[in-house]
Amino acid sequence: MLTVDFDRLGLRPGERLLDMGAGGGRHAFEAYRRGADVVAFDMDADELAGVLEIFGAMKEQGEVPEGANADIKQGDALELPFADGEFDRIIAAEVLEHIHADVDAIKELVRVLRPGGTMAISVPRWLPEVINWKLSSEYHDAPGGHIRIYTDHELIDKVTKAGRFNDGTPGDAMIFEGKAYAHGLHAPYWWIKCAVGVNNDDHPAAKAYHRLLVWEIMKQPRALQLAGKVLDPLIGKSMVLYFRKPDVA
């Protein structure tokens, strides 16, 4: 279940891609299938071990092009262990809302992106997220949970200013290239979960809607694909912003 549009990101075979906050690896796997040189980065060693195992299985089963590479790296988003301009493309999907010093994390992402490179950042969309917070404090008060709700203007402002020098001059100020929304079918599921209890997986409404989402993900029926296209711009749970780092003059 992808949030980022890889064609819009502009990923090409052989390019180096950082999936920052990779989690279970869904975007890293897709980048690997497309022939990229992928680094899945996260602070959770257990999740990264699972990602590495799947990387190996993908290669053994011939799911990736010849020459594609993939690896994992554990670390802190505020101190990325990579050189300046090391990556052609960066994805940070559903991670910044968990990080207290989000501006510092964004600056690190800008630093390791090469001039001319592109970056996709996704976060929970404002309206669906506000409804979740109103319905349940348990949804966001858990350790490691969401600590803020972004508007598009706030996040665009933080990212486009992240490459500026301390005196305010442009430097490598990022260029905003557009936004999209994703997972319109998923927002009502989380509203149900927040209403009946985030951990109440046995509630009939939650179970029924979960079965619908599993059907969507596994079978991709045309009816649900069309429903998603209609709902994404209206109540899509995720907002995706696309940026480009200016080329060196």
Automatic annotation (TrEMBL):
Keyword field contains Transferase: yes
InterPro entries, per database record: Methyltransf_11, SAM-dependent_MTases_sf
Q: Name one GO molecular function term.
A: methyltransferase activity
SUPFAM superfamilies cross-referenced by the UniProt entry? S-adenosyl-L-methionine-dependent methyltransferases
Q: Where is the Methyltransferase type domain?
A: 18-121
Q: Which GO terms describe its biological process?
A: methylation
- Annotated keywords: Methyltransferase, Transferase
Q: Which Pfam families does this entry report, sorted A to Z?
A: Methyltransf_11
Q: Which residues cross the membrane?
A: none
Q: Known PANTHER family for this protein?
A: METHYLTRANSFERASE
Entry protein name: Class I SAM-dependent methyltransferase
- Species for this entry: Nocardioides aquiterrae
